[in-house]
Amino acid sequence: MKLPTPTRNPLVQLSRQELALILVTMFWGTTFVVVQNAMNYAGPLFFVGLRFLTAGMIGMLLFSKSLAGMNRRDLLAGSLIGVGLFAGYALQTHGMQTISGSKSAFITALYVPIVPLLQWAVLRRPPHFMSVVGVVFAFAGLLLLADPDDGTLHLGPGEIATLIGAFAIAAEIILIGHFAGKVDVQRVTIIQLLVAGGLSLLLMPVLGEKLPSFSWVWLLSAVGLGVASIIIQLAMNWAQKSVSPTRATVIYAGEPVWGGLAGRLAGDRLPAIAILGAALIVIGVLVSEMRFSWRRKKVAAGE
Hints:
Layout: H1 16-38, H2 44-62, H3 72-95, H4 101-108, H5 111-123, H6 129-146, H7 157-179, H8 185-207, H9 216-239, H10 245-252, H11 255-265, H12 272-300
Helix pairs in contact: 1-9, 1-11, 2-8, 2-9, 3-7, 3-8, 4-6, 4-7, 5-7, 5-10, 6-10, 6-12, 8-9
């Protein structure tokens, strides 16, 4: 299905949809610090479950009228995306119990090249050349930014869980792009959040995770992120009606940049090689944008 043309701001070469995804990415970058701190007080399944059930219930209150028109396609789309959402965040949160936030960001960022590869393997849609170039730049920058000390990756249980989570996040992004424009955004957003939260809590006894002792840390963190999650999921579903999964992925690749800035405010200091990595990510976004300008010129020329 051909994506509709994004609405672009004449002052900048970015559409409103792309700007919304950039804001989403900025917020994502700050959550590593919040989640890693919360893991000192609660287990990953409980935390993810509370976070997304909070978001889902808020969505039900805000968009209760739209639920009346729910159909099978909405239910299918929301359920599939919800499974990907659950797997990605639960595995990422589980991994952060044993690995650092920067290493988690590095491994999670592998979904950048995974998205076009999955599109090619599953949907038989080879990525555009400039998208591949942009992804390569972004991924190279992530390697320098998120793991600048020794350049190696030692796969323990936390790393493996986060790596599998990266595949789940890539699948979620592709599913959002696949169903965008075919389903009701509000209904699908509510369903996917409730599915992700429900699966998390239902699997707690299966995987042996116990209820945590009460703490304002996990409560405020989970509820706060839950409120933000409903806004984020609505923004992603709305924006990806006109932004391709590969393009969206390049934008999402800026997540570690904002994570690094949040870490700096918390006391971390980025070395020069990490700053170089951040620059490469920005170059990746710009290179990907060049493809849009080139395509517009070809259309204008009647090619």
